Amino acid sequence: MTRFKFDATKSDNRALRVGIVCSRFNEFIVEALLAGAQRGLEKCAIDPNNVDVFWVPGAFEIPLAARTMATSGRYEVLVALGAVIRGDTAHFEYVAGPCSDGIARVQQDTGLPIGFAVLTTENVEQAIERSGPDAGNKGEEAAIGAIETWHVLQAIRAPR
Questions:
Q1: Residue 86: which of 142, 28, 116, 125 has the closest Cα?
Q2: What is the arithmetic mean of pLDDT over 136-143?
Q3: pLDDT value at residue 142
Q4: Which residue out of 91, 98, 129, 152 is catalytically annotated?
Q5: Phi and psi dihedrals of 143, rounded to 5?
Q6: Which of 19, 30, 33, 84 has its CB surrounded by the most CB atoms within 10 Å?
Q7: In degrees to the nearest 10, what's the CA dihedral of 136, 89, 61, 118?
């Protein structure tokens, strides 16, 4: 039995091209997630010159931008960042589920790994907790996880 397990922070990632799509809605939270994603990419030794960041109006638009990025041929890895915070209306359900489903569909249709850090929280405090500068920043986790998944996919695709 051959086992494949990768630590993205100990792999050669210098040449990887990464696209990040961010939601402007709840921008103060998403900026913190982006800072975390950038820390994660730095831990993986990604060249900052190989990273593009695109901002869309809200989380609902993230899947379309991600699909366009995934099919552009410019990126090996994508990261999706946003924050959908429950309010007093059904808006939460109409945005959070379609965003998550859309990203899953883009990933499955294109075979491109997408780190997903679109927070779905009950309140602002939970969003702040998951996007803070300490351990547990979901943007950082998503970026590192996407790089790790890229390595796993390469191992699966490699001829034996």
A1: 125
A2: 97
A3: 98
A4: 91
A5: -65, -50
A6: 33
A7: 10
User: Above 90 in pLDDT, residue 22?
Assistant: yes
> What CATH class has 15-157?
alpha beta
Per-position b or e across 33-59, b if 16+ CB within 10 A of its CB? bbbbbbbbbebbebeeebbeeeebebb
Question: Could you give the CA distance from residue 139 to residue 131 in angstroms, rounded to a whole number?
Answer: 7
Token pair for 123: 């309140």
Enclosing H/E stretch for 18: strand 18-23
Contact 52, 90 (CB under 8 A): no
- How far apart are the C-alpha atoms of 114 and 18, rounded to whole Å? 10
Domain residue ranges of the chain, discontinuous segments joined by +: 15-157
Is residue 135 very low, low, confident or very high in pLDDT (cuts 50, 70, 90)? confident
Where does residue 73 rank: exposed (0-12), middle (13-18), buried (19+ CB within 10 A)?
Answer: exposed
Query: Up-side HSE of residue 159: CA atoms within 13 Å toward CB?
Result: 0
Element (DSSP H or E) covering residue 51: strand 51-56
Tens digits of per-residue pLDDT, 6-21? 888 888 898 999 999 9
